Amino acid sequence: MTERSSVDIAGDAAATAAYVAAITAELSRLARSHGFSTLAYVLDMARQEARALADSVSSAGPGSADAEPR
Q1: 51-59 contacts: CB < 8 A, separation 24 or more?
Q2: Is 1's pLDDT higher than 80?
Q3: Could you read off the pLDDT of 5-20 as tens digits, one per residue?
Q4: How far is CA 67 from CA 2, 19, 50, 56, in A?
């Protein structure tokens, strides 16, 4: 897992969402390896949402109304 401080990502919504996607992917793998299938599923859903937000925010660009989080 890549370590990033909150200072690095605090001002960048796309980077924050991408970081959340990376963390939840790691947590999902960990949960699945211990047989926590429901938890792994929920983390996978969170990862997909974070990835979609990262893609949406980065494609909308700064200052766009579409860049606002849901």
Answers
A1: 51/17, 51/18, 51/21, 53/13, 53/17, 54/14, 54/15, 54/17, 54/18, 54/21, 57/13, 57/14, 57/17, 58/14
A2: no
A3: 554 555 689 999 999 9
A4: 25, 17, 13, 7
Q: How far, in Å, CA of 40 to CA of 11, rounded?
A: 29
* Burial track 12-25 (b if 16+ CB lie within 10 A, e otherwise): ebbbbbbbbbbbbb
Alpha-carbon 59 to chain mean position: 16
Counting every residue written for the chain, the total comes to 70
